[in-house]
Amino acid sequence: MASQPPLFRDPWAKREAWRKHPVFSNRAMFSSMFPGLGIAVVAFTAYVVVDSFYGKSHGQGHGH
């Protein structure tokens, strides 16, 4: 008599396993959607801070 797997075994489990892989988690998907967003935000913030201090120290506006 041959040993058979249980009847409740999912035949599609191997094909669905990729959905539970950590590469496809929500956090990984979001971070790969915008790869340079963090660096861009930091660079833009630094630019705005430097520009505002530089503008105040020279007493000039932005052409207004």
Short description:
With 64 residues, the chain is mainly α. It has a domain at 35-59. The protein is 53% helix and 0% strand.
Can you describe what's shown?
The protein is mainly α. The protein has a domain at 35-59. The chain has helices spanning 13-16, 26-33, 37-58. The chain is rod-shaped, with a radius of gyration of 27 Å. The protein starts with 12 loop residues before the first helix and ends in a 6-residue tail after the last helix.
| Structural classification | mainly alpha
Task: Determine Rg (CA atoms, Å).
Answer: 27 Å
Strand percent estimate:
under 5%
Helix count equals: 3
The quaternary structure here is single chain
Q: Average pLDDT, to the nearest integer?
A: 77
According to DSSP, the number of beta strands is 0
- Biggest sheet, open or closed, and with what strands and sense? none
Secondary-structure element series: HHH
Fraction of residues in helix: 40-55%
Which regions have little confidence, pLDDT < 50, spanning 5+ residues?
Answer: none
**Which descriptor suits the 3D outline?**
rod-shaped
End-to-end distance: 91 Å
Subcellular location: Mitochondrion inner membrane
Organism: Pisolithus microcarpus 441
Pfam family, one: NDUF_B12
Keywords: Electron transport, Membrane, Mitochondrion, Mitochondrion inner membrane, Respiratory chain, Transmembrane, Transmembrane helix, Transport
